[in-house]
Specification:
Number of domains: 2
CATH architecture of the largest domain: 3-Layer(aba) Sandwich
Shape: globular
Helix content: 25-40%
CATH topology of the largest domain: Rossmann fold
Number of helices: 13
Largest sheet: 7 strands, parallel
CATH superfamily of the largest domain: NAD(P)-binding Rossmann-like Domain
Strand content: 15-25%
Order of helices and strands: EHEHEHEHEHHEHEHEHEHEHEHEH
Distance between the termini: 29 Å
Number of strands: 12
Bound molecules: (2R)-2,3-dihydroxypropanoic acid
Amino acid sequence: MTKPNLLVTRRLPEAVEVRALHDYHATLNLADTPTTPASILAASAGMDAILCCTSDRLDAATIAALPACVRVISTFSVGTDHIDLAAAKARGIPVCNTPDVLTEATAELSMLLILAASRRAGEGERMVRADAWTGWAPTQLMGRQVSGKRLGIFGMGRIGQSLARMARGFNMTVHYRNRSRLAPELEQGAVYHDNDAHFLAQCDVLALNAPGGAATLKWLNADRIAMLPRGAVVTNAARGTLVDDDALIAALTSGHVSFAGLDVFAGEPAIHPGYRALENTVLLPHLGSATIETRDAMGHLALDGVDAVLAGRVPGNLV
Ligand code: DGY
């Protein structure tokens, strides 16, 4: 039996590529060259399925122009904001993603941002690496204690809930803002807020963990930043589009926001240059799900979705 044709847009973990090559006529991106909509279109000729990533842009025009043979798009990500879902629906192309398997890794990364930003780990690391450390000093790089503080989580989905569990280990009080209130067994004592002003006033640390897209575009703007207590710490492990960069940079400059830990950026990898100029930022290259275990699981789940659609089944990871 002939194997279906699968386009894999970027390098994937070895075990996932081995499976893709075993089960499909897989076209791999061995040079791991970043894609453009045009390169995806060119490569999708004759493909039954596309396994893409968060760094690929499948906008409405690209999806509209995909060849008729493409029967499924499966993304190696939980986020789907890089794919125009309405355009895929209009074409009758199901989209699969990778929920659940990256929850703990991304929550860990959120916790890392909270700790690294609050405790000035980025500045310390840069100092030691630049051979600029002249020795221990009582007032050197004093940060903000995390233990016992109030953590506000914007977006209390799976990742937000996992972050809340981790934060309780630091004796943090958890507040959250979400589309709807969680059931008590999921809330685990976290305090729900039904408006931004009440929520933001409680945030010694604000962690952004909500999906990207139109509904959250520049949610953290100057007005909402002004509602934070002076000296709050801001972290973002979700999508850069949630933040109005000019407003956050102004707040980091004035000290209204003391530190920020950012793993994601609007327009990444071309980040707003203002962030690089600030010492009080910890800047990471979108590492949320980047553990060996998680990236393997994401790849296999993305392939499960392709397998299911091409076999005429409804995938468990259908968006
Ligand atoms: C996702 O899954 O959406 C992450 O941003 C990439 O792992």
